[in-house]
Design a protein that fits this description.
The complex is a heterodimer of chains A (153) and B (272). Chain A has 153 residues and is of the alpha+beta class. Chain B has 3 domains: 47 residues, Uridine Diphospho-n-acetylenolpyruvylglucosamine Reductase, domain 2 (2-Layer Sandwich), CATH 3.30.43; 115 residues, 2-Layer Sandwich (Uridine Diphospho-n-acetylenolpyruvylglucosamine Reductase, domain 3), CATH 3.30.465; 92 residues, 2-Layer Sandwich (Enolase-like, domain 1), CATH 3.30.390. Chain B is built from 12 helices and 14 strands. In chain B, β2, α2 and β3 form a beta-alpha-beta unit. Classes of the chains: A alpha+beta (153), B alpha+beta (272). Chains A and B meet through β4 and α3 of A and β1, α2 and α6 of B.
């Protein structure tokens, strides 16, 4: 598979979950393991551009796919607009859910480029923030949407 | 949590999938999106020795107009149902229910066929397909057969599918773009329904289905009969828990589920 644009090729056990593959075989520990029961969304990565919980997908299922983790989102030194918006709007507190939140948000904005607040709240229902920092997370996503719309027009 | 060890094989076509599952015997299971099976395997509640991954059988992913009905490939993802213009026009109830399954991440991976074959009474789509009098096309080593939704769900996570049969297509009536309501009651976003009630007009009659009111998805038959006899929504909804066997869990007692069924059916009838 391609992870953040570079080819990764490892022989792993069939039962290896994508999140363990990314963290242990590829050494990309930005993807977090939270609940490990597909509830919390901390392990969200993009598979062919769409948000997926990597604790509930086998690495073998992702064979041949394009994976994007939080490490691969920035363009060199320039943050992705969603990362920038989380930074500017205090969209994180402890930071544990952040990688998953950011990637879920990127996928959401790809599907709904100009979301309402309700769209964002519903769109992120699969991501839990135990600091309960939702208010600023939603604000961050709306700010990113506005910036990305502006850049696209 | 890591699943117990298993062998993984990938099928490129329906024929290959059926051949592989026959070859590997009863402890082999099909893997589609994995949104139901993988969590069970991680908890070691399911320990198949072989997984036959059908996730790449692309020709089972479609929503098609088949004249008097719609034909939906078993590997069509919830996300694809949610965004299907054809479904929005011809059977919007199914689109709307698919949009309420899990969360975005689950809908990006989970498939309608996987949800049906898993047969969880707490899932949204099996109950919706029961309400819609859907039929399921399955393929086994001895060929194809069609199973009506009302014959399909046999018990808790138990369906009429033989271990070596693959669900390939779901057929639903064209019900149009309105005339339905789905009331899903849960405590947290993305959860399974504590109880759900769906009312939908199918060929001029109101069908009512219940989520999580027994070991299988159920039709609220007493409600449907009352409606046919001219009862108002409010009166008919009082029959919502007749014939159900709700269980107790951390979320609700059987009594509370019965109460919820009545309230949710009334709301669904009034909104449909």
């Amino acid at each position: 598979m391609q992870v953040n644009g570079s080819a990764q090729d490892h022989d792993v056990e069939a039962r290896t979950l994508l999140v363990y593959y990314l963290r242990e075989a590829c050494g990309l520990t930005g993807t977090k393991i939270g609940c490990d029961t597909s509830s919390c969304g901390a392990c969200t990565v993009l598979v062919d551009g769409e948000s997926v919980k990597s604790c509930t997908m086998l690495a073998a299922q992702a064979d041949g796919a394009q994976i994007t983790t939080i490490e691969g989102l920035a363009n060199g030194d320039e943050w992705h607009p969603v990362q920038q918006a989380f930074h500017e709007n205090h969209g994180l507190q402890c930071g544990y859910c952040t990688a998953g939140m950011v990637l879920a948000s990127v996928s959401l904005l790809d599907e709904i480029p100009n979301p309402t607040e309700q769209d964002v709240r519903l769109g992120l229902e699969g991501n839990l923030c135990r600091c309960t920092g939702y208010h600023n997370i939603v604000k961050s996503v709306l700010a990113a949407a506005e910036k990305m719309q502006g850049a696209g027009s | 949590m890591i699943p117990a060890a298993f062998d993984y094989v990938r099928a490129g076509s329906v024929d290959e999938a059926v051949a592989l599952i026959s070859e590997h015997g009863e402890d082999a299971k099909f893997l589609a999106g994995g949104m139901s099976l993988l969590p069970l395997m991680k908890l070691r509640l399911a320990t198949p020795t072989v997984l036959v991954d059908v996730g790449r059988v692309r020709d089972l992913s479609y929503v098609g107009d088949a004249g008097d009905h719609l034909a939906i490939g078993a590997l069509t993802r919830h996300r694809d149902l949610e965004t299907s213009d054809l479904l929005a026009r011809e059977c919007d109830v199914l689109r709307a229910v698919a949009a309420q399954v899990g969360d975005n991440q689950v809908r990006h991976r989970g498939t309608i066929g996987g949800s049906v074959a898993h047969g969880d009474p707490a899932s949204d789509l099996p109950a919706a397909l029961l309400a819609l009098d859907a039929s399921f096309t399955v393929r086994g080593p001895n060929g194809e057969r069609e199973i009506a939704a009302h014959d399909f769900f046999r018990g808790f996570l138990e369906t009429a599918l033989e271990p070596d049969e693959l669900l390939t297509e779901i057929r639903v009536h064209k019900t149009g773009s309105n005339g339905y309501a789905y009331e899903k009651f849960n405590r947290r976003a993305q959860d399974w329904a504590i109880v759900g009630a769906l009312a939908a007009k199918v060929n001029g009659e109101t069908h009512v289905a219940l989520v999580n009111m027994g070991p299988t998805p159920l039709r609220a038959q007493a409600v449907e009969i009352a409606l046919r006899q001219g009862a108002t929504a409010e009166v008919a909804a009082r029959e919502a828990d007749v014939g159900t066997e709700p269980t107790a869990d951390l979320n609700a007692s059987p009594e509370y589920r019965r109460h919820l069924a009545q309230v949710l059916v009334r709301r669904a009838l009034e909104a449909s």
